[in-house]
């Protein structure tokens, strides 16, 4: 038996594959040479389960998606006061490479634009660290978010630093305001190397899931940054992560997110999951065209807008046990609480991973008080797949929690009022 989630990812990727609008990041020669047709997506749950489709193992550079993670490291290393003294948190409403500084202080408006990110890079680690030690802290920190060691693409770094005139100008202006207190060239070199780290779409999903999991890496269990830092980072991502498209993103998608000119986009749904997409062609804002479309679809299909979902997904599984004997031995999977996407995913995984002694399966939803439309569709689909594989499926549902009775009749799923009725079937 297989989960329907990978099939869903395949279908969604196929729905955007024909869109060839947008252009490559041609102001960086190395990025202008990438295959524009590459396309991938990944979902990482906060318990470490990973789903992916498309070009899942293709390596590309993280670019500006590094910004929220380096911001998190700076907050963890230097503290909120010292970082906020140098970098604000207000949306700029401008492109990522604009010189957006406060008139009075020269402070960058937020850490998601280049001026703020260059400053943030300089604040990672302790004040006594040299450039090499700071760079090692950045790489090891981002590697901790990903759960594996990340490497720098030296060819992309060389290509970017050769054309980093605007970032160098920004850095020199920051130095003139004493926002930077060291050699601006060295800071830009470090920032450019940070952006040149190689990742896959699965790495990005896991990094986003670490933010969604309040700073705990889902696989390694490491508390990469404190929970208070994550709240700050997600808040800034929500308001500033998509540059001058942040307002449209907040209303249409509603997920804290960050894009990069390498073609990646990440999103973090607190308490539930991390999302990532990869497609190199960019729109006028520097965001992946197909990536934006994918996130709009994910948000709509899965009900992920942060204004609609709770911050923490409680366990949807209450019990998994067997009753009866012989031909009537039945595996009972008892659900509880409010079931949304993350809860339905956990139920599906429980069903897929369970070892069955017979061919009778009962889903007990008597302790479930709400199932949203997306979760109901997912539960009906896994029941359909169980029936297709030859299992007899029962639904214990005394309060009509699952409302699509026609689908249940079509699949020949018996709806019972209590667990005791199983003995008559």
UniProtKB/TrEMBL annotation:
Q: What's a GO biological-process term for it? A: glutamate biosynthetic process
PANTHER family per record: GLUTAMINASE
* Binding, substrate: 64, 114, 160, 167, 191, 243, 261
Assembly and oligomerization: Homotetramer.
The similarity comment for this entry is: Belongs to the glutaminase family.
> Which GO terms label this protein's molecular function in UniProt?
glutaminase activity
Q: Which residues form the STAS domain?
A: 332-425
Name the Pfam families for this protein. Glutaminase (PF04960)
Which reaction is catalysed here? Answer: L-glutamine + H2O = L-glutamate + NH4(+)
Keywords from the UniProt entry: Acetylation, Hydrolase
Report the EC code(s) recorded for this entry.
3.5.1.2
Spell out the protein name for this chain: Glutaminase
Q: Which Gene3D superfamilies match?
A: DD-peptidase/beta-lactamase superfamily, STAS domain
């Amino acid at each position: 038996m297989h989960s329907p989630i990978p099939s869903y990812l395949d279908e969604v990727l196929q729905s955007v594959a024909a869109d060839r609008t947008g252009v490559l990041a041609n102001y960086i020669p190395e990025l202008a040479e990438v295959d524009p047709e590459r396309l991938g997506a990944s979902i990482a749950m906060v318990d470490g389960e990973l789903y992916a489709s498309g070009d899942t193992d293709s390596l590309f550079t993280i670019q500006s998606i590094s910004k929220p993670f380096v911001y998190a490291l700076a907050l963890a290393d230097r503290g909120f006061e010292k970082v906020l003294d140098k970098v604000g948190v207000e949306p700029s409403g401008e492109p990522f490479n604009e010189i957006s500084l406060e008139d009075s202080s020269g402070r960058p408006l937020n850490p998601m634009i280049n001026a703020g990110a260059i400053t943030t890079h300089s604040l990672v680690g302790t004040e006594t660290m040299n450039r090499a030690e700071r760079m090692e802290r950045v790489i090891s920190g981002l590697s901790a978010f990903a759960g594996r060691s990340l490497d720098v693409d030296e060819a992309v770094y060389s290509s970017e630093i050769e054309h980093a005139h605007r970032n160098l100008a920004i850095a020199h202006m920051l130095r003139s305001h004493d926002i930077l207190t060291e050699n601006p060239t060295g800071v830009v070199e470090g920032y450019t190397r940070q952006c040149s780290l190689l990742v896959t779409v699965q790495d990005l999903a896991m990094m986003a899931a670490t933010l969604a999991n309040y700073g705990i890496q889902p696989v390694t269990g490491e508390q990469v940054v404190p929970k208070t830092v994550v709240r700050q980072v997600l808040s800034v991502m929500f308001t500033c992560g998509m540059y001058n498209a942040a307002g449209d993103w907040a209303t249409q998608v509603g997920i804290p997110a960050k894009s990069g000119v390498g073609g990646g986009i990440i999103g973090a749904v607190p308490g539930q999951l991390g999302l990532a997409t990869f497609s190199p062609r960019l729109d006028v804002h520097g965001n992946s065209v197909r990536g934006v479309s994918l996130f709009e679809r994910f948000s709509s299909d899965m009900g992920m807008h942060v204004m609609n979902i709770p911050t923490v997904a409680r366990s949807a599984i209450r019990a998994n046990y067997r009753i009866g004997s012989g031909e009537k031995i039945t595996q009972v999977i008892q659900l509880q609480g409010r079931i949304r996407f993350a809860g339905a995913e956990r139920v599906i995984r429980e069903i897929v991973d369970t070892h069955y002694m017979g061919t009778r399966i009962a889903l007990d939803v008597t302790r479930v008080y709400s199932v949203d439309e997306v979760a109901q569709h997912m539960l009906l689909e896994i029941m359909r797949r169980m029936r297709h594989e030859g299992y007899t499926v029962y639904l214990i549902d005394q309060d009509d929690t699952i409302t699509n009775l026609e689908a249940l009749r079509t699949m020949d799923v018996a709806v019972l009022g209590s667990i005791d009725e199983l003995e008559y079937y």
